[in-house]
TrEMBL record, chains A, B:
Protein name, UniProt field: Nitronate monooxygenase
Stored SUPFAM superfamilies: Inosine monophosphate dehydrogenase (IMPDH)
Membrane-crossing segments per the record: none
Single annotated GO MF: monooxygenase activity
Coiled-coil region: none
Keyword Flavoprotein: yes
UniProt keywords, alphabetically: Flavoprotein, FMN, Monooxygenase, Oxidoreductase
The keyword Flavoprotein is assigned to this record: yes
């Protein structure tokens, strides 16, 4: 199952692990796949620290960095980070702030400690994204940059290419994949609606083959709904050059997650996720809870557009992550994950997960071959 | 690709064609798969006529019949068909009738000719379903009965088994598949959310493998999102014993469809469908149009529960089918189809479609084998 894209990157198996945890990056790369560090929400200092650790532990293996490089938000590339934060804060209605604060208080989620990391991170700003890309490109073992949302701007594409690295981007709609191709990207990550985080409405089964045909000969990595080796066979059978798994690592041994959040993931079925605008302002898949339901009701504020909703919920996201086990925190927590959550029922090491994926893959392929008549 | 379930039925390839058109049934069975006639909405007389024709044209091949055998609707198994229709008609609010009639009139859809087939068909009644099953079981070449909605009642399961035939049912949720197994059915048709008609929220990629594992050793037919051979490889790799395709035949040469409806299907992308309660009262996937949008608005009537909405829209369904090309009929027409609609862009014979599916299947399997290292 070594695809051409594996060979181009120099990895053994076409398993791409999207994760916010450096330990998962290292473990998957060492197991023959490639870890891609999700750096959205990281400050440049935080990214430097994480990449230092990865470089030190990953040996001769390679990795990638995923960030969110916006094409444009009106006015957002014209100011200093401080001015940007102020502009965003000013744009959030008081009613939204109060609603959000009350939900957290009612669920017994402790306040963030005053004075600790007071700075709001500019998750979706060009200034921030540029700093993250610059840092990543100083690392020889970082071989790919991924854009989580939209087509990256031409200057970033050029910068990454000049450094001798590959750049790709997520696409949940055909037209986004075609725009990425037009912009000169090297590969597309095509995510169906069952995937965790931001995704469109068309499912993996239908979207993958259409995307693969539409952007050919660009390599497509299949995302959304992959948690076992049978699903990897499905993806590669359609012509994907690799698979992009995010949800699968969230409860792995190496993942950083509070026990209460792990438990929410482990106990959820595939019917327990929802596509909601309540955390980022764009439709993203996550576990259903009182928070996601509250923002849907007619008597509550409408979620703001991205990036505003994300700044509004910055506090909710970090508090519900840190204090995942406090009070009724899980009722209002941000737990992004795909529908595959229903098939993830135990905690294993990333190495074991990769081994299982490969075993299941081989078994499924054997099964297919056994269905064919003998020559 | 001859699965055990193929062998049990005595068919060559595990392709199950769900269709309302007798010509498609015959063409697919003759091509090596098996046609399953969707008889929901047929009167017993109409079914008799269709099965006579099929029996005459299908040669030595076999087929199935799909109907909707309700477990229970309060009071619906206690009356004569005439009383039932009256009961349903009485339960529909005047506001709903007026809204529906106005939409059709505004779109320029002609009235149904007075005196022609004036009788309302009892699509979802036990009385009607029993008559359809009885008729089907008189036909030696009809080898399987499928229930489109829910677990069939125990007496029907027993009746079908005593006749030496197989009985199965659709399931869009794990718990439905488990209930079917408990009721002693012989196979499950597992449909993901991308499928046309009634479906749940979990997508095929995620639902199929879970269902296959949950109801084992019962055979599972994979439905929802299958329109080419690569998608069939995906289904069989996960352990499905066959594939159930509905959308794929809707614009085939053999399908009965007005040119305007065909054109609606041929020109639609995968983003043009919606899951809507506006025609049957249960969430079903169909092409988006003004009708589906109108029933979602806050200033319009809420769709009634099944079976009421279906009786309310009985007139809309048959008028928009018959007069598909009149006025703005397509803006209010009932066009049920899955997300695969986006990959169906030409009219072909069913025989050619089956041949293509098999060719694509073999090519995709060859591709998978080529990715494996040489021994």
């Amino acid at each position: 199952m070594q695809t051409d894209f594996c060979k181009e990157l120099g990895i053994e198996v076409p398993i791409f692990a999207f994760t916010h945890c450096r330990d998962v990056v290292v473990a998957v790369s060492k197991a023959g796949g490639i870890g891609v560090l999700g750096a959205v929400g990281f400050s440049p200092e935080k990214l430097k620290e994480e990449l230092d650790w990865i470089d030190e532990h990953i040996g001769d293996h390679i990795y990638g960095v995923d960030t969110a490089i916006p094409q444009k938000y009106e006015g957002m590339d014209k100011n200093t980070p401080e001015e940007l934060v102020q502009m965003l804060q000013d744009a959030i209605p008081e009613q939204h702030r109060e609603f959000s604060a009350k939900m957290l208080a009612d669920a017994g989620v402790p306040e963030w400690p005053a004075g600790e990391d007071d700075e709001v991170t500019l998750s979706f700003s060009a200034v921030q994204a540029q700093a993250l890309v610059d840092e990543s490109l100083t690392r020889p073992k970082c071989r790919m940059i991924v854009n989580a949302l939209g087509t990256p701007p031409a200057d970033i594409v050029e910068q990454v290419h000049k450094s001798g690295r590959l750049i790709g981007a997520l696409a949940g709609r055909l037209k986004h994949g075609l725009a990425h191709k037009e912009a000169g990207l090297d590969f597309i990550i095509c995510q169906g609606s069952e995937g965790g985080g931001h995704a469109g409405e068309v499912t993996s089964m239908v979207l993958w083959p259409q995307m693969i045909d539409a952007v050919a000969p660009l390599p497509v990595l299949a995302a959304g709904g992959i948690g076992n080796g049978r699903q990897i066979v499905a993806a590669l059978a359609m012509g994907a050059e690799g698979v992009w798994l995010g949800s699968r690592w969230l409860v792995s041994e190496e993942a950083h997650a509070e026990p209460a959040q792990r438990e929410s993931y482990l106990s959820a079925t595939s019917e327990d996720t929802i596509r909601s605008r309540s955390f980022t302002g764009k439709t993203a898949r996550m576990l259903k809870n009182e928070w996601t339901e509250a923002w849907e009701r007619e008597d509550t504020p409408e979620p703001l557009p991205m990036p505003l909703q994300g700044y509004l919920t910055f506090d909710a996201v970090r508090r519900t992550s840190r204090y995942a086990g406090s009070g009724d925190c899980q009722k209002v927590a941000f737990n992004p994950i795909g529908q595959v959550v229903g098939q993830i029922n135990e905690t294993e090491s990333c190495r074991d997960i990769v081994f299982q994926l490969l075993t299941e893959y081989t078994d499924a392929l054997d099964h297919l071959n056994n269905l064919m008549p003998e020559d």
